[in-house]
Specification:
α1 runs antiparallel to α9, α7 runs antiparallel to α13 and α8 runs antiparallel to α13. Helix content is 75%, strand content 0%. The mean pLDDT is 82. The chain is mainly alpha-helical. It is globular and about 55 Å long. This is Major facilitator superfamily (MFS) profile domain-containing protein.
């Protein structure tokens, strides 16, 4: 691997880790609300905050087609999205307790919806930037860098419930994360160069992108892939937040969740490191081979 690929891999990994950091912070909310006596119905409303990740295809062509001249193509989108995330996390740190205590879960959900929406913009931009930062031989590593980065970033969930829940509280945790996020975003702005350029930088290219997506969605292999993506996680639904909240209702301590989650994340990162050479060119095939074993485990 060349020095450029090493540098590019580290950059991509760090950006995905920042994404995972916020996902971990967002993932803390259901258990925090449960502790504050919020009922399951309102917690279900908050789950809508994660919807942007399911529909990011609606704005992906805009992010992929519009650049900002000398500022670059991918980096301005990343800096823009991460700056908003940092600012909103700071705002949430000041209003979280008040919103929950007053039952304003819809407003809280809207705030986190925007945070997650900005994360999708960052995700789209990093996915595209990886194609420029890595040579064609190593572009296939992007999926593994994403998995490892997001999982390590998501350890923020474990850190909070293992060490900070009873000492500083969730709002203070949000404040510290927001400060770190804004500082890290400033570092990306200053230290990382963006030499990527779109083939066409205009709104006409955006419309062409949407047209191409529509054409792709009419292809049989794409239809099969879409159906697969929409249904592949149904079998894992019992492992979701509902199980965690049910166990919490039966007096299972939050630190127990944190320890189990820590082990599983470590295991997932280790698997990503082991299988990285198998997934460089045929990542979907590797997933299909592993899928039955995951279902048996469920």
């Amino acid at each position: 691997m060349s020095p450029e690929d090493v540098k590019g891999s580290i950059t991509v990994f760090m950006l995905y880790m920042m994404q995972g950091l916020v996902l971990g912070v967002v993932g803390c909310v259901p258990l925090v609300m449960n502790t504050m006596g919020v009922d399951m119905e309102q917690q279900a409303i908050f789950s809508m905050a994660m919807v942007p990740f399911s529909v990011k295809i609606l704005w992906a062509p805009i992010v992929d087609s519009i650049s900002f001249g000398k500022l670059g193509w991918r980096k301005p989108w990343i800096v823009f999205a991460q700056s908003i995330v940092g600012a909103l996390l700071a705002g949430a740190s000041l209003s979280f307790d008040t919103l929950v205590e007053n039952g304003d879960i819809a407003l809280l959900t809207g705030m986190y919806f925007v945070i997650v929406g900005c994360l999708t913009i960052q995700d789209i931009s990093v996915d595209g930037w990886a194609c420029s930062l890595l040579s064609p031989e190593y572009v296939g590593m992007t999926a593994n860098l994403q998995l490892a980065g997001q999982l390590i970033g998501a350890f923020s969930w474990n850190i909070y419930f293992s060490f900070l829940d009873e000492t500083i509280g969730y709002p203070s945790f949000l404040r510290y994360v927001s400060i770190f996020y804004l500082v890290a975003t400033a570092a990306v702005l200053v230290l990382v160069k963006d030499t990527s350029k779109p083939e066409n930088n205009s709104w006409s290219s955006v419309s062409n992108s949407f047209l191409n997506i529509f054409k792709l969605l009419k292809l049989k292999p794409i239809i099969i892939l879409v159906i697969f993506c929409l249904t592949s996680k149904i079998g894992f639904a019992p492992h979701g937040e509902a199980l965690m909240l049910k166990l919490r209702a039966r007096c299972v301590e939050k630190k127990v969740f944190s320890r189990v989650s820590f082990f599983m994340k470590f295991f997932n990162v280790a698997c990503a490191a082991v299988f990285i050479k198998f997934t460089r060119k045929r990542s979907l095939i590797t997933f299909l081979y592993a899928y039955p074993f995951y279902m048996i485990g469920t």
